[in-house]
Specification:
Elements lengths: L1 H8 L27 E5 L5 H12 L4 E5 L5 H7 L5 E6 H11 L3 E6 L1 E2 L3 E3 L13 E5 L2 H13 L26 E5 L4 H6 L4 E3 L1 H7 L8 E2 L12 E6 L6 H8 L4 H10 L5 E2 L4 H14 L1
Parallel strand pairs: 1-2, 1-3, 7-8
Antiparallel strand pairs: 3-11, 4-11, 5-12, 6-9, 6-10
Helix pairs in contact: 2-9, 4-10
């Protein structure tokens, strides 16, 4: 089938997550068929998914969790009706995917934000950081967010305030307190090891043995700048009002699942509660500015 061809051709990305199906429980609401609800993700081995599956079954849901090896395929599969929903991406990634592929995928339930943080070996504060060279990820997904982390820390000044995805040309170097140096995301831990301050993605912290709790600053998950990085369950626009999918996605916020999410992220993830309307407003704003 087409999905198998996609999976065979897909390569693992460095970024940053059948037919219509129903819940077996009458409480799940209207749905399109009697099979399991299929959910796509890129990290099915995490403890959160095992907890989610257990809690969903307790609520009477019949589900299937399908893992993908790259970050584009779960959206392709969703758009083509191969799965019912997915949970692996933040709103900025979704906005860029929709805009680049002409799709109309929408968020229905927020899950969490994983803050992006600044680390400085053998330091526990921003004291003395002025004049330093700070390494940040150079990929399109994380560079703008990393710059905004430094803006929120008061270390970088932009020529224009409020940019969702600022680039290097947007930095007012004369007014900034540090120099920003983009490097491959995988090299940010190496910069940290050399004694340079570095903004490091969570996925690389674990590999480098860096404790996430040793960060000296992180973006505020409640700030407007962080809104594009809210993760969410996503569906096709035609399924945005399916009550079974909404109720299933809400299972993510049950305590056993949240405990597992916290364990997976070593306590760095921050739960987010937003209405579908609020999520859609953020998505549209990000799509307009992307």
């Amino acid at each position: 089938m087409y999905l198998r061809r996609i999976l065979a051709a897909a390569s693992v990305s460095v970024i940053a997550a059948t037919g219509l199906a129903a819940c077996s429980s009458d409480s799940s609401g209207d749905s399109a068929s009697n099979g399991p609800i299929t959910i796509g993700t890129t990290d099915a081995s995490k403890k959160a998914w095992a907890a989610f599956e257990d809690e969903a079954k307790k609520e009477g849901f019949d589900i299937k969790i399908q893992n993908f090896s790259d970050y584009n395929t779960p959206n392709q599969a969703l758009d083509q009706g191969e799965i019912d929903t997915n949970n692996f991406q933040h709103l900025k990634f979704l906005a860029e995917y929709n805009k680049g592929n002409g799709t109309d995928l929408v968020p229905i339930v927020a899950t969490e934000i994983v803050p992006l943080a600044l680390f400085w070996k053998d330091h526990d504060s921003l004291d003395g950081i002025e004049g330093q060279e700070i390494a940040i990820p150079n990929d399109a997904t994380n560079q703008g967010r990393a710059i905004n982390v430094l803006v929120q820390a008061g270390l970088v000044t932009l020529k224009e305030e409020g940019l969702i995805t600022p680039g290097l040309p947007d930095i007012d170097e004369a007014a900034s307190k540090v120099k920003v140096t983009p490097v491959d995301a995988a090299q940010t831990p190496a910069a940290y090891g050399e004694g340079k301050p570095a903004v490091i993605n969570n996925s690389f912290l674990d590999r480098a043995g860096i404790d996430p709790k040793t960060s000296i600053f992180q973006d505020d998950p409640n700030s407007k700048e962080a809104e594009p990085y809210i993760n969410a369950f996503v569906v096709r626009a035609a399924d945005a009002d399916r009550e079974d999918l909404k109720k299933l996605a809400e299972v993510w916020h049950t305590q056993p699942v949240q405990d597992a999410v916290a364990e997976d992220s070593k306590g760095t993830s921050v739960p987010v509660e937003r209405t579908p309307e609020e999520l859609q407003t953020i998505l549209e704003r990000v799509q307009e500015q992307s």
